[in-house]
TrEMBL record:
The keyword Transmembrane applies. Keywords: Membrane, Transmembrane, Transmembrane helix. The chain crosses the membrane at residues 9-30, 42-62. This is Mobilization protein. It comes from the Bacteria. The keyword Transmembrane helix applies.
Length: 225
């Protein structure tokens, strides 16, 4: 701030000195052409004041004059900046959109990982390694909303229809994909040896029966051990 104040003093003193020099030169010229002392002094004062006035007017209007000249000679400058700003906004929005898509994908992958771990833990004692792999693929297909025609049947032992109902409810409640009738159709396609003779609507109605009975019970959260 002090530097700016000192700078202004130097500028004003320089202008005043310049105007005084012009006044002195004008006075000397007036005397050289035969003017008397009084007239020469008037010329001196008039030229000095005129110089100060001209500087003041230029100081007031110089900024507007510069802006006007700039607009005359560079009319497209603003038009050049706007596309750049829009381009930056577009790039920023695309980055946010990409990050959100990645976040959703990570969440979905995490959901699938939790479900596969639960499925393998629940069914490992009651099916073969081959069928456990098939069951995991079926769960992945369900999570990815693939056609039910891609689902393959799996053989299990020692599990009842109630266990399978509970398993179906737990998977549906975890993903919340489609409706419970679709889950019933999924169960019937995966476990035909147990559910082949049961109507899809009947499976749907009994998905949450006797929550704490059976080998596989109702789970509110599959991520909990």
């Amino acid at each position: 701030m002090h530097s700016k104040y000192f700078e202004n003093i130097v500028i004003y003193l320089s202008v005043l000195l310049g105007c005084l020099i012009l006044g002195i030169l004008a006075r000397m010229f007036a005397i050289s052409v035969g003017a008397d002392e009084f007239t020469a002094n008037i010329v001196f004062v008039a030229v000095t004041l005129l110089g100060i006035l001209v500087y003041g007017l230029l100081s007031i209007f110089i900024k507007d004059l510069f802006t006007l000249i700039k607009q005359w000679f560079f009319p497209k400058e603003k038009l050049v900046k706007e596309p750049i700003e829009k381009s930056n906004d577009s790039a920023r929005i695309d980055k946010i959109r990409t990050e959100q898509k990645q976040l959703v994908a990570d969440q979905e992958n995490n959901k699938k990982a939790i479900t596969l771990k639960y499925t393998q833990t629940a069914f490992a004692p009651y099916t073969s390694d081959k069928d456990l792999v098939l069951l995991s693929r079926n769960i992945t297909s369900y999570a990815e909303k693939k056609p039910i025609s891609e689902i393959q049947s799996v053989e299990v032992k020692k599990l009842t229809s109630l266990d399978l109902y509970h398993f179906g409810w737990n998977i549906w409640n975890h993903f919340r994909i489609g409706n419970q009738l679709q889950m019933a159709a999924f169960l019937k396609k995966v476990f035909p040896s147990i559910l082949d003779g049961v109507e899809t609507e009947t499976i749907k109605r009994h998905l949450k029966d006797d929550e704490q009975r059976g080998i596989i019970q109702i789970r509110k959260d599959l991520s909990e051990e």
